[in-house]
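Changelog-linked ticket: zinc ion example.
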Amino acid sequence: MDCLFCKIAAGEIPSKTVYEDAEILAFYDIEPQAPVHVLVIPKEHIPSMDGVTPENSDVVAHIFAKIPKIAASLGLSGGYRVISNCGADAGQTVPHLHFHILGGKPLSLTMA
Ligand code: 5GP
Ligand code: ZN
């Protein structure tokens, strides 16, 4: 499949790994929007939040169980934000489910 994040998950395209296990990968965003900007993806291809179903939601729960540990490992003791852009209006540019972890400074409250 011609999917950028599937290729990153498979190690075919290099990325700076923050955390990895059999189901998920966390890596630094190539164009950071905050002092710390990490993406967390399921290794399985799910196109977006709209592709989450009862059959595949275990990996999403796993991601959310790991995010606090990943954030702690990144030193985000002051807090952090988790974002998933779904679809065109949200500005999703990579059609493989991913969660942004942003932090490292007080973030703007702008949501739109
Ligand atoms: P989206 O806009 O879909 O919510 O987020 C996609 C994110 O992927 C963007 O923040 C973008 O900087 C990041 N990104 C795009 N291509 C690459 C890449 O090849 N490597 C890494 N590490 N991040 C990427
Ligand atoms: Zn994919």
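Closing comment: Example verified and attached. Residues 3, 5-6, 45, 96 surround zinc ion (ligand 2) (CB under 6 Å). The mean pLDDT is 97.
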